[in-house]
Amino acid sequence: MAETPSRRLFVEMLREEFRLHARLFGGRRFAAFPLFVALVGAGTVWLLERAGTDLGGAIAGFHALVFAFGLHTGSIGLVGRDAMRDLLGDVTLLVFTARTLPLSRRRLLGIFLVKDAVYYAALFLAPLSVAFAVGGLGLRVALLWATITGTFLLGIAVTMAAIALSTRGVSGWVVVLALAAAVGLGWTTSFDPVGFTPYAVYESPGVGSVVRAVVPIVGLSLLGIATYDATTTSPSRTAESAFEAWHERLSFDEDGLVTKSLLDVARSSGGFTKVPFSAGILFLVSVGMVDLAGSLTGVDPSIAVSMGAILGLTAFTTYNWLTQFDALGVYLLYPISHAAVFRAKFRAFMVLGLPTALGYFAIAVAWRGGRVGEIVVGAVLLVGLHLYLFGLTVYLAGFRPNEFLFDTVLFAVFTVAVAVGLVPVLIVGLVVAPIDVIAMAALVALAVILGSVGVGLYRRAIPRWSRRYRTE
Amino acid sequence: MTAIRTQNLRKTYGDVTALADLSLSVEAGELFALLGPNGAGKTTTIEILTGQLVPDEGTVDVLGTDPTTDPVETRRRVGILPEKESPPSFMTPWEYFDFVGTVRGLDSATVRERVETWADRLSYREKLDTLNTDLSRGQQQKVMITQAFLHEPDLVFIDEPLANLDPIVQERVKRFFTSYRDDGNTLFLSTHDIDVAEEICTRVGIVSEGRLVGERVPADLGREESLLDTFLDSVGGSIEATAGATD
Fold this sequence. Notes:
The complex is a heterodimer of chains A (472) and B (247). Chain A has 472 residues and is mainly alpha-helical. Chain A is globular, with a radius of gyration of 24 Å. The mean pLDDT of chain A is 84. Chain A contains 18 helices and no strands. In chain A, helix 12 packs antiparallel against helix 14, helix 16 packs antiparallel against helix 17 and helix 16 runs parallel beside helix 18. Chain B has a six-stranded mixed sheet with strand order 5-6-7-3-8-9, with helices on both faces. Chain B has a domain of 165 residues: Rossmann fold (3-Layer(aba) Sandwich), CATH 3.40.50. The mean pLDDT of chain B is 91. In chain B, strand 1 and strand 2 form a beta hairpin. Chain B is α/β, with parallel strands linked by helices and 247 residues long.
C-alpha cells in the first residue's frame, strides 16, 4: 500500500506517544504497564466477586470511569503548547506542527484523535477488559472492549467539540451551553442519554443500539473538526501584583516559596477551586463505596472512620496540583536549596490540602452522622494518612508525582504501600463497626505511626532527590 | 583576583561525555566568553559552576566558594541567566521580581527602582502586569535578564544572552554588559555567536568535546585574523558542508 502523509503521520504519532510515555514513566518498564493493569484489574474483579458485588454494577462504573478518562485525554492535545510545556516540560508534539509543515490543523487533530483511540484501546483498555474475564464474561469480553473503547472515544469527542466551539467565542459557548442544557433537560424528562452511549450496546447489543451509540461519537467529532478555529488566540492576561500582599499574610514563609506555590495554583486554569473539585470527586466516590459496602456486608459502617481514611487519599491530588506548574530545576537559579523547595511544598500542602480534606470530612459526618469518639478517631486517621500519603509520594516520585502513575514498578510499590496503610483501617471502619474503645485506641496509634512514617519518608526524600537531581 | 577556576572537570551522562577534562580560569573584571559548537559542554560547564550539577571529577572555585559542596552560597553571590528557562508561567514580571527580591534578600524599594530601570532599558514596562505565560519569547528573555542582574552580583553567568531579542535591545544589552564589566564586575558568557564574542568580550575560551582547545584575546587579533578562523582551527571544523557532517 502506498504511504500517504496521513498514514505516515498516524504511525509517527503512535511512535511519539509511546516514546513520550516511556520517557516520562519509567523507560522500558512502561512496556510492562499493560500487563500490570491486567493483573490489578483481574485482582479487583476477583475481590469484587468474592465480596458478592454485582458485576453488572462494576461494569457500569467501569464505563463511567473510562468516559471520564476520555474527557481528560481529549483535552491534553487541544489545550495548546504552553499548557503542555507546564505539564511535561519542553516538549513539542507532532500535533503542533501545523505552523511548520504543509498540514492543516484540522487534519492533524483528526489523526491525533484516531491515534489516541488506537493507542489507548490497545495499551490500556484491552488489558482492563481482559481482566473482566475473571468474572466469567467469556466472549462478552470482546464486546466489553468494543464498548469501552467507544465510551473512551465519546469522552474525547465531547471534550473536542466543547473546546472547538469555545474557539468561536460567545456564539460557540452558547452552543455548548445549549447542548448541555438539552441533555440535562432530557435527563429530567423521559429521555435517557445513556441509551445513546456505547454502554447501551453492552447492555443490549443490536443494530439499533449500535447506531444510537455511533451517531453522537461521529457527530460530535465532525462538529469539533468543523468548528475548530485554529487562528483563535486568547488575549494576554494581566493581574495586579499580589506576591507581596500574600507573602505578608503567610508570616511563616520567609523565603517566599510557599507564596509562589500558592500563586501558581491560584492563577492556573481552575484556580484554587480545582483542589476541592478533585477532592470532591473522591468524596462522592467514597460516599458511594461506603454505602455499597454497608449494603453488601449488612453492617452499618462507621462513616467517620471510613471517610477519614479514604479522604486521606486526597493528599496525592493536592501534591500533584502543587507540583504541576514548576520543576525543581527552576529554583536552581537562586540561592535556594532543594530542601527549602520541598519544605515549601510541604507547607503549601498543609495550607491547601489538609483543610480541604477536613472540610469534606466535616461535610460527611454532618450529613451521615457518627459517634463523637469515632469522629475524633476519623479526623486523626485523616491527618495521619494524609501525611503518610504525602511522604510516600514525595519519597517515591520526588517532584513529579504524575510519573509513577504509569511507571510499573513505582506504581506497584505505591499501591502496596497505600494498601498497607488503608486496608486495615477500612476493614475496621466498614466491617467491624460499631468500633469499641480498644479498636479506637489501636486506630489512633496506627494513625500516629502512619503520620510519623510519612514525615520520616518526606525527610528522607530530600537528600535522596537532591542527590539525584544534582547528578543527572 | 581569580573569579572562576576549574581543574580537570569531568562530567558524563551515561555513555555521553559532556566534559572530558576542562580546566579554565577567569579573572575578576573579565568579560569572558566560552565559545563552542553544539554539544561541546558549554551549558554543562555553567551548570557545574553554579552548583546545579555535580561533576564526576575535578575541582571548582567560584568567588572563593565551592559550588559542589555549597551551591546555595555560590548562587547567593552570582547571577544566572540560563539558556532555556522561562519565568514562572503564572506570575507577572512584577510578582516574579518581588519573589526573586525576597529570595535574594532585597527590600521592596530597591527591587522597584531596579526593575523600573531594567524595564526602561529593555523596553517592556507596559508588560510588567502581564502573566509571564502570555509574554512573547523575547519579552520572557528580557524578564530573565532582569532577574539575573537584580541583585547586582559581582559575577553573572549568561547562556546565549541575545536569543529572541530584537536588534535594538541586543545592542543595549551588549552595551550594558560592557559597562557592567567596566564597573569591575565579571561576566561569563556561553555563546555560539562569534561576532558577539569578538565584539564585546575581553577573552574567549574555545571548547570542543568537553575540553578547552584554545584561548584568544579579541583585542589582540591581527588585521588579517578573525575569531572565526581561530575557532575553526581550534575545533577542526570547516564552514564547507561535508558528507556525514553534523551541526
